[in-house]
Amino acid sequence: MFKSCSRCGKIHPRNYICTKGKVFKGGDERKLRKRADWKAKSIEIREKANNLCEVCRDNGRFIYENLEVHHIEKLTEHPELLLDNDNLICLCQRCHKKADAGEIDPDYLRHLASVREGRI
User: Which of 45, 89, 93, 113 reaches 20 to 30 Å from 81, CA-CA?
Assistant: First the structure.
């Protein structure tokens, strides 16, 4: 018995599970983000940033809602940097999406993290 697939439009056997367009969430990265030490580090970074988006603050805007902690070097590529203050920055959702898309220079984000840590 066959059926038409709602994901790809092809004909598959009835028990076939099509993965076309399916987003896989999880893996090792998800396990790392559930750790208690990551949750504590996330709170620490937000507090050090005075609960403001660091990119927006640098541009004269003070955004304090919908804050997220961003890994400058992707966690999937560098899991050893999970708790490294120099690799973490507090961003609003809009800036976080831009950073993930590569629209914000990672060197600029590292500079802001260094300023937050008092190294510059």
Answer: 93
Q: CA 26, CA 83: separation in Å to the nearest integer? A: 19
Can you state the percent helix, strand and coil of the chain, rounding each to 5? 40, 15, 45
Q: What is the pTM of this model?
A: 0.74
Supply angle C-alpha 82, 88, 90, rounded to 5: 135
Helix (H, G, I), strand (E, B), or coil: what is residue 19?
A: coil
> Which helix (H) or strand (E) element contains residue 67?
strand 67-71
Is 60 buried (19+), middle (13-18) or exposed (0-12) by CB count in 10 A?
Answer: exposed
